[in-house]
């Protein structure tokens, strides 16, 4: 007898939401997670422990193509990276699903339009209790109302919104999966990059997995690492794990853009010499990681905000660059306190305190374009990440426009710092969906072209990164896939 009807490898945004979508079907669903449940502890709200001491940062290292080791900052725990996410739940813009000409290339588009995913976006917003207001954002795609009103701006951010409006922009509420009262009840801190250990954020574990595990047919096994996938012909026959060999009629990989690709490559055999699901030679390719920078706007005014992260700007999302090229999204970071600033920059604490006390902190994000030479490979047992950053000129243009606008809005000093490969900025690609098996790994429903009982359900599937946080899109794809698997797996 098989161990389950469906085995899901990974409990992050894709895997947990897929399980939630399958839970009411009665099918036996087994979720395997290599990490453990995050327990509450004093360090969970201690910025020094988190940002200086790296209390929660995993020991895992990857290699650059030159052989240098680095810590990628990806988390292995129940709920995955979503336990530390900023809880932003943005839909891709309608235009993101079609080819778009950027300053440094053209995106390939998606195998279906926005309208195909729109009902699943709505279901995902309901599952994660998203707070938002679509009326102020000029790029918001066709949609209904958010499940809940937006999280209110603090006084400093409400003033910022007024100043940005006076400068000619259209600041809008940031859609967030946060129970604000519950979050602040635990401690007066931001949620961005802080671990959710008490359910204040609606993340993959506290929202989707909790929903799934309320059904007796869904089981979670943590601390189980999947090391290899067995296959015969075009059929997966078993998973070799740290807990032994496990089988199911259908297997879904949801280990994240890097680990899903690495597992497929690691499962190479005589019949599949380039790895599983890799007839196209696209597994591991087209790795994308948003071009991102922190931008700190300083003035003589003190910033007493606690959480801060409630505002976004999309005026330059669809245009703004040369010949109308898109530049990207701007949103607030979680409040950068003096301990965080000192830890991230090496500044002396007194200087960090002076800067942080008078700064409002922004996150500028631009699209990284798919490139087959930007890829994940293996070197022995090590993961090699060769990220070839693209579209950087657009990101520099976005940061420059943001700085100029902030100065007009009354911030005389504006500083910026780009994020590097040690900071995961929405990693995606590596097993993209498409209709052509020669140029994609999975079909538009996430089913591997080469294996009749293997699917993928995480950020690997994304054929483009767009320039918004991908969490909601991953969740919507998962709910769409769940509807299919309810019928396909009996």
From TrEMBL:
Name this polypeptide is given: GMC family oxidoreductase
Superkingdom to which the source organism belongs:
Bacteria
Return the InterPro entries for the record: FAD-dep_OxRdtase, GMC_OxRtase_C, P2Ox-like
Cofactors required: FAD
According to the entry, every stretch annotated as the Glucose-methanol-choline oxidoreductase C-terminal domain falls at 386-478
- What Gene Ontology molecular function terms does this protein carry? oxidoreductase activity, acting on CH-OH group of donors
Which source organism does the UniProt entry give? Gymnodinialimonas ceratoperidinii
UniProt entry tagged with the keyword Flavoprotein: yes
FAD dependent oxidoreductase domain: from which residue to which, for each copy? 5-260
Family listed: Belongs to the GMC oxidoreductase family.
């Amino acid at each position: 007898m098989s161990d389950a009807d469906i085995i899901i490898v990974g409990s992050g945004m894709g895997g947990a939401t897929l399980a939630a979508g399958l839970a009411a079907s009665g099918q036996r669903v087994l979720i395997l997670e290599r990490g453990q449940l995050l327990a509450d502890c004093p360090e969970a709200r201690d910025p020094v422990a988190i940002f200086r001491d790296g209390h929660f940062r995993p020991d895992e290292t990857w290699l650059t193509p030159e052989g240098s080791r680095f810590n990628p900052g990806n988390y292995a725990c129940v709920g995955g990276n979503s336990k530390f996410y900023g809880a932003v739940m943005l839909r891709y813009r309608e235009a993101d699903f079609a080819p778009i000409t950027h300053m440094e290339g053209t995106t390939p588009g998606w195998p279906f339009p926005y309208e195909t995913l729109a009902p699943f976006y709505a279901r995902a917003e309901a599952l994660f209790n998203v707070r938002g207001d679509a009326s102020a954002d000029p790029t918001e795609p066709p949609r209904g109302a958010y499940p809940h009103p937006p999280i209110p701006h603090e006084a400093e951010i409400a003033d910022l919104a007024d100043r940005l409006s006076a400068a000619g922009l259209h600041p809008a509420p940031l859609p967030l999966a946060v129970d604000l009262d519950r979050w602040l009840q635990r401690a007066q801190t931001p949620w961005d990059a802080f671990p959710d250990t008490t359910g204040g954020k609606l993340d993959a574990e506290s929202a989707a997995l909790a929903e799934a595990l309320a059904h007796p047919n869904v089981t979670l096994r943590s601390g189980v690492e999947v090391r290899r996938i067995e296959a015969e012909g075009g059929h997966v026959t078993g998973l070799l794990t740290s807990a032994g060999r496990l089988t199911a009629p259908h297997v879904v990989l949801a280990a994240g853009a890097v680990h899903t690709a690495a597992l497929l490559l690691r499962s190479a055999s005589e019949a599949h010499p380039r790895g599983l699901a890799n007839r196209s030679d696209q597994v591991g390719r087209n790795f994308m990681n948003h071009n991102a920078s922190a931008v700190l706007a300083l003035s003589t005014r003190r910033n007493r905000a606690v959480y801060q992260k409630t505002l976004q700007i999309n005026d330059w999302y669809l245009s703004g660059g040369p010949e109308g090229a898109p530049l990207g999204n701007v949103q607030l970071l979680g409040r950068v306190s003096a301990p965080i600033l000192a830890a991230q920059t090496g500044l002396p604490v007194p200087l960090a305190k002076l800067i942080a006390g008078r700064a409002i902190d922004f996150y500028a994000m631009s699209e990284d374009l798919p490139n087959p030479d930007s890829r994940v490979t293996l070197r022995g047992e090590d993961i090699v990440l060769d990220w070839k950053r693209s579209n950087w000129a657009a990101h520099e243009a976005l940061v420059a426009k943001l700085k100029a606008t902030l100065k007009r809005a009354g911030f005389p000093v504006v500083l910026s710092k780009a994020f590097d490969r040690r900071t995961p900025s929405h990693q995606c690609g590596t097993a993209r969906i498409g209709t052509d098996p020669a140029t994609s790994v999975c079909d538009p429903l996430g089913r591997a072209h080469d294996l009749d009982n293997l699917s993928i359900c995480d950020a690997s599937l994304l054929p483009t990164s767009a320039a918004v946080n991908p969490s909601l899109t991953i969740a919507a794809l998962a709910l769409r896939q769940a509807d299919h698997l309810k019928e396909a797996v009996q």
